[in-house]
Each structure stands twice: as C-alpha cells, then as structure tokens.
Amino acid sequence: MMTLLILVGILLAIVFGVRRYVASLDSQQKTAIKDGINEVFVRAEREGRFPRHPAFETDYLRDYPGLQKIEENYSVIREECEALMQRRENLVPMASLGGGYTAGDTHSAQWTTLMFKSGQFIEENCELAPRTAAVLRGVPRVYTAFFSVLEPNQHIQPHYGYYKGFIRYHMGVMVPRNNADECCWIRVNADPDDNAADDKGLIDRGERYFWHDGEGVMLDDTFMHEAANDSDEVRVILFLDVARRMPWYLDLFNRLVLFVIHREASVRRIREAARIKL
After folding, report:
1. Residue 225 reports pLDDT greater than 70
2. Under 8 Å between Cβ of 114 and 129
3. Following DSSP, what letter does each residue of 61-94 receive, concatenated?
4. Which CATH class for the 53-244 domain?
5. Around Cβ 259, how many Cβ atoms within 10 Å?
6. Burial (Cβ within 10 Å: 0-12, 13-18, ≥19) of residue 188
7. Bridge partners of 219?
8. How far apart are CA 97 and CA 120, in angstroms?
9. DSSP letter string, 113-135
10. Sheet holding 207-210, edge to edge
11. Where are the beta strands (DSSP E) in 138-234?
C-alpha cells in the first residue's frame, strides 16, 4: 500500500511539473510538443498497436458502449436543440474559439456552437440544455462536446484535426429532411499517402457520409476532411471528442496528456469564449 502511495505521489509530481513547464512555453513550442505527441500515436498505429481507423466507423459500440446512451436519448436531445434553434443568433461562432488549426477558409463558413464541455463542463451552457448535458455527463471518455450548427448553403473547407489521441463522434440531431436528398455530408480521405502529401485538393478522393437523425458515426479527424450543408435549412449535429481506445500504457499516456492540455491557459480561454450570454 505504501509503495502504491509513493508511486502515485511521484506520478502527480511529474504531471504537475509538466503542467507548469507547458504553461511557460510560447505557442510555437506548444505546437511542436503537440506534433511530437501525435507522432507517438501515429507510430504506434503504424506498428499495429491499435487499428488504423477507416474513413467512417458505424460499428463502434463494442469499443465505446457509452455512446449508446446518447442515441437512446435522441428525442430528448432533439427537443432541447429545437428550442435553442429558435434563438440561435446567441450561439458562439466557431471562429471565436481560437481554433487556429482550422483558421482561414474553414472558419469563413457560418458555423456556430453551443459547447457543453471542453475538458470541463461549461455550467452556464449546460443550463440551456440540461437534459442533454445530463446525458453527456454519463458518457465516459468524452473530453469535448457541443452542438455543431451549420447554416444553409455552407461549406467547411478541407482541413485536418489537431490530436491523434481523440476519435470524433457525430450524431445527427437536426438534419434537413433527414438527408433524403443527401444535401448534408462530411467527406474524409483516410488514405495514408494522400494525407502525407498534405494536398487538400486530394479531398476529392475521399469517402462521403450522409448524416441522419439519431444515427452516429465515428472518424479520425486527423485525416483530411470537409463538410457541407447544401440544403436551405440549418443542420445540427452533436459533436464529441472521445479518448481513443489504445493499449493501457498508451491510454495512460493519452489521459495524462489530456489532463495537462485541458488545464492549460489557451483551453481555459476557449471555455470562457464559449460561454453563451443571453
């Protein structure tokens, strides 16, 4: 027992030491560290320590069973979302949340959010959709959660996500006409060579997925991807970043990294900017 307590104490000391070190770095240095951590996961994936994700995965409940709770509560989530859409002018533009990794053309889209969680729950926002927030509190491994609101006739340009330790989950909440005309879609190019080329023109080689109400899909957002709402109505999905399933030693490393990241000043600023003031 004493040995275990000593080990825990050493681990906590290391984590808090790393946290203080990261806080002292400038943005370029932090980006370099993030890229190095991503390379650890990329190499592990290449070595087969965990499977490479396809463009889209719909058979995910064995690895992420908690997501079933979200889909079982779709009607509740939809009801609260519809009420919010009556005053969606109060939602926060994605461009204001400091997402430099998708800056520029990506954030030129009319794309807004109600963010429930970014490392920690944003309580003021949760009060605007309390039953949805209650469902999310019961789902393990979720670090980011929000309603992603894309206005009619909008296109989110090809881009790459920022962290390999996540798997992205989408559930259609308000999909115009339940996508009978396939106007609302996301496209992912999961080809390793195309992604290594870093040529966004290669997105046309990717695979498209068409959202439907109450249905979920998972994807690796570090692969090149784009999205569009080509309809004449607003489109809303529930958007989650979930800690990726990995062997225990990589999972522990990932959890420690996420512990530090979500207590870093830039993420605290995102939480503050995401607060909706009615």
Report:
1. yes
2. yes
3. TTT-TTHHHHHHTHHHHHHHHHHHHTTGGGSEEG
4. mainly beta
5. 14
6. buried
7. 168
8. 15
9. EEEEEESEE-HHHHTTSHHHHHH
10. 154-159, 224-229, 184-189, 207-210
11. 142-150, 154-159, 166-174, 184-189, 207-210, 216-219, 224-229
- One-letter amino acid at 38 equals N
| Positive/negative CA dihedral, 277, 118, 233, 104 | positive
Per-residue CA distances from 52 to 15, 46, 73, 246 (Å): 29, 8, 30, 11
Between these two residues, 184 and 2, which has the higher pLDDT value?
184
Sequence ranges of the domains in the chain: 53-244
pTM to 2 decimal places: 0.91
Contact 130, 110 (CB under 8 A): no
Whole-angstrom CA distances from 129 to 83, 166, 276 are 9, 25, 12
Tokens of 233: 């109505």
pLDDT band at 263 (very low <50, low <70, confident <90, very high): confident
